[in-house]
Design a protein that fits this description.
heterodimer; A: 370 residues; 14 helices; B: alpha+beta; MetI-like fold; Jelly Rolls; four-stranded antiparallel β-sheet; 9 strands; cell membrane (chain A); transmembrane (chain A)
């Protein structure tokens, strides 16, 4: 007797999965196309429509001239012969870098290399392991960024949602009003609070390190390493927390207030259901997809907001890498970082789409209508 | 129709104290900007901020005076003793004159000066005059500071005189010259009247010598000075109009253009709408700050270029999706149909019928956006991509950061621009949040 509904449910599951897969593939293709356009735009901006090549040509020429002049073996060469040698070396280098081809051709080449994450070699910088490949340099810095910003985001997100839920219940209380009053403090970014935190907790009251990720030299035992890491993370984490917690609570509180005045919630209240049940089933469940959306959107916003905070706290992540790259005028690293950021954002958007599809029952309805 | 709505909004807004505080802060900032722009012309500000000559009489890294006085300190201000006020004794001799120029000053500060320089000027001399310097302390000691042949413009860096430092027992001259001779390890200021006697020989009957003895203080003005002797109050003052202009222009530019584009997309539908949507999606994966960094590194860090890029990247932002959702129901509203029926053109419908309808909802967003852009400018400057010539708050912060101001204890250098930034942010944010509650219909019932 229960066999038929079970089979129906399984069939329903299969159908959902199929729809989801089709949807995912469609979104993935669309996003790939978007990344393609985005990366191409980046390359265009970065190359100033080909002008970077002129600069590089000048650089190659001066380097070749320098090398020939500095070589003691070529000291006695007559000037015409030496000039010819310089020209030959320049043309070899130009050919090697394919600078003789038109920019449009090369830009397509750059594009397909960037899409394969073959980001080329840095001009001056190298990774801690000594690699000159931009990809290695960037990937080496990713975990530090992920650790700091992942934990900060999770902390802010969960704290604010839970505090907002309880505040929406105690709407108009002193606590509620003080949170609203504090919300404008979020106008300042995290690095801004970071400066003050460093001032207070690292210089006026020297409790915590002013920057860095671990003590130097790094502790041997993993526990000591973790403890040192936590000590170093405390200040940047607090800075980010301070800069976004109040506005986050404020917007969630408003969101929950709007939703808790819906008719079906009033109905549940009238039935006399306990408040935690109302919260979980009648407020949280229907609002889950917007909550997830905003979580991922927050991730998007914080990916790039991290640069200066890392710099202020000397955190060895992507942000300080970008900062160093600016200092060295190391164009391949800067472009590589933009490409990686674009990819990360695209992945975030993709996850958002899929989660949305999973949580939103209307995706299944679309299937039935067909 | 709209006039009443605005008036109601204003009446309601007045009930929020945070809105009033915000408006007061904004009014103050606007007043400050107007004063700055009128009192210190743009070109003069740029000229001065470039550093160098205008600041030669300012101390390096001096704190604000009021902070020192409030904390009960009595650190020295900069003392300038000029020869114009001094009584010059002249004794002529065959082929020239002998001048005795006493540069006297009373010193009763608690701390030592941060540096001592003597500026000498001798113009119109056929042969360079010669001067011998004698330092006289209140207790009657005399110290020779050596002799100098004076050029047209000369600067005698007394603080840099290594030989003098050795003679003073290893104390740098600006401490040793003013310390009491009690042999203590920690030098103490000997208060009283000091004199620097310039004993000069000039080989000309007319031309004289101008001398300026500068004892650089440890405190200066209301904002202090930076490592290039520049008065920080100039940058703090000029930072205000720059920050406001940048924030306002960026916010107006992005919101209005975004709104117009969203409205055009909604009205024309079809491929126009589709193109706008796709562009928005491309733009969403372009990270704003890294792109700005890239543009700043490769092109120029001019604040106006940055503004342009910010607006350009801000146009096709997530905001378009939001406005689109708001505009879609308006498109089908009967009054639009009526407008079409009497023959209104496409442009007229978009600009006069659709956009004004959601403008009030936009105002809070717009006001809360301003501080974001103000901080964005500061962020870029902190990254070292500030405008090359304009003095801004962010550039002051960047200088302070690169000179490790916090580590060296120059707290004022970081705190002053930071407080101004925060004030701007708070002012607009407070007003914006209050506006949100007034104009946002969803929140009004709460």
């Amino acid at each position: 007797m229960s066999k038929a509904p079970l089979a129906a449910r399984r069939r329903g599951l299969w159908r959902d999965l199929r729809h989801l897969l089709a949807y995912a593939v469609k979104r993935l293709l669309a996003l790939l196309l978007t990344v393609l356009v985005g990366v191409y735009l980046t390359i265009l901006i970065a190359n100033m429509g080909g002008q970077v090549d002129e600069l590089r040509l000048v650089q190659i020429r001066s380097q070749a001239a320098e090398a020939v002049r500095a070589d003691p073996a070529l000291q006695d060469m007559p000037p015409e012969e030496r000039n010819a040698l310089i020209e030959r070396r320049v043309s070899l280098e130009v050919e090697r870098l394919r600078l003789d081809q038109p920019f449009v051709v090369r830009s397509v080449d750059y594009l397909q290399r960037a899409m394969r994450l073959d980001l080329g070699r840095a001009e001056q910088m190298h990774s801690d392991l000594g690699s000159r490949a931009v990809y290695d340099i960037i990937v080496e810095r990713l975990p530090a960024t992920l650790l700091l910003f992942g934990s900060a985001n999770l902390l802010v997100f969960f704290t604010s949602v839970f505090i907002a839920l309880s505040l929406s219940r105690r709407y108009g209380s002193a606590l509620d009003r003080s949170v609203i009053a504090l919300a404008p403090t979020s106008a300042a970014p995290g690095w801004f609070y970071g400066i003050f935190l460093i001032l207070v907790f690292a210089f006026l009251v020297p409790l915590l390190p002013a920057g860095g990720m671990v003590t130097a030299p790094p502790p041997e035992s993993p526990w000591a390493y973790a403890a040192s890491l936590v000590r170093h993370m405390l200040l940047p984490l607090t800075a980010m927390f301070l800069s976004s917690i109040f506005v986050s609570i404020y917007s969630w509180r408003t969101f929950f207030l709007i939703h808790s005045s819906e008719d079906y919630v009033e109905m549940a209240r009238a039935k006399g259901l306990p408040s935690h049940l109302i919260e979980r089933r009648y407020i949280l469940r229907p609002t889950l997809s917007p909550i997830i959306t905003s979580f991922l959107l927050m991730l998007i916003g914080l990916w790039s907001g991290a640069i200066i905070l890392e710099q202020v706290f000397n955190w060895p992540g992507l942000g300080s890498l970008l900062f160093q790259a600016i200092g060295h005028r190391d164009t391949p690293v800067i472009i590589g970082a933009v490409v990686i950021f674009a990819y990360l954002l695209a992945v975030t958007v993709f996850l958002l789409d899929i989660l949305y599809a999973l949580l939103d029952p209307r995706v299944r309805l679309v299937g039935e209508r067909r | 129709m709209t006039g009443g709505r605005w008036r109601d909004g204003w009446g309601e807004l007045r009930r929020y104290p945070s809105a009033l505080v915000g408006m007061a802060i904004i009014a103050m900032l606007v007043g400050l900007s107007l004063y700055t722009v009128i009192a210190i012309p743009y070109s003069e500000a740029l000229d001065k901020w470039r550093g160098g000559e205008p600041w030669r009489l300012h101390p390096v890294n001096a704190g604000p005076v009021w902070v020192d006085r409030l904390t009960g300190g009595h650190q020295p201000r900069t003392l300038i003793v000029a020869s114009d006020a001094a009584e010059i004794e002249t004794a002529p001799f065959e082929g020239g004159r002998r001048l005795r120029i006493p540069l006297a000053f009373d010193y009763d500060y608690a701390g030592f000066p941060s540096e001592i320089n003597l500026f000498l000027r001798a113009e119109g001399h056929a042969q360079r005059p010669f001067a011998r310097l004698l330092w006289q302390t209140p207790d009657g000691r005399e110290l020779s500071l050596g002799g100098h042949r004076i050029g047209r413009e000369d600067r005698v860096s007394i603080s840099q005189d290594r030989a003098l430092e050795r003679r003073l027992g290893g104390r740098v001259p600006h401490i040793g010259l003013l310390a009491a001779p009690d042999g203590e390890a920690v030098p103490r200021v000997q208060p009283g009247r000091y004199r620097l006697l310039l004993d000069a020989v000039v080989f000309d009957d007319e031309a004289g010598i101008d001398a300026e003895l500068v004892l650089y203080g440890r405190v200066h003005g209301i904002a202090g000075t930076d490592h290039q002797r520049r008065d920080l109050s100039l940058a703090l003052l000029w930072g205000t109009p720059v920050a406001l202009a940048f924030g306002l222009l960026a916010a107006v530019g992005t919101t209005l253009i975004t709104l117009v584009i969203a409205a055009v997309g909604v009205w024309y539908r079809g491929w126009v709408d589709a193109t706008i949507q796709r562009l928005t999606e491309v733009n969403m994966i372009l990270p704003l700050l890294p792109i700005l960094v890239m543009v700043g590194t490769l092109y120029s860090t001019s604040i106006w270029l940055m503004l342009g890029v910010v607006v350009l990247l801000g146009i096709f932002s997530a905001g378009i999706k939001m406005y689109r959702a708001m505009l879609l129901p308006i498109r089908e509203a009967p009054y639009i149909e009526a407008a079409q029926a009497y023959g209104a053109g496409n442009l007229r419908i978009v600009m006069r019928y659709m956009i004004p309808r959601i403008l009030p909802v936009l105002i809070p967003t717009f006001v809360t956006l301003i501080p974001t852009f103000v901080f964005l400018e500061a962020s870029l400057a902190v990254l070292g991509l500030g405008d090359p010539v304009l003095p801004t708050w962010g550039k002051v912060l960047n200088d302070a950061q690169s000179r490790s101001a916090l580590y060296n204890g120059y707290y004022y250098w970081v705190v002053a621009p930071a407080v101004l930034l925060m004030l701007t942010g708070l002012g607009f944010a407070m007003l914006g949040f209050a506006l949100d509650r007034v104009f946002n219909p969803r929140l009004r019932s709460l």
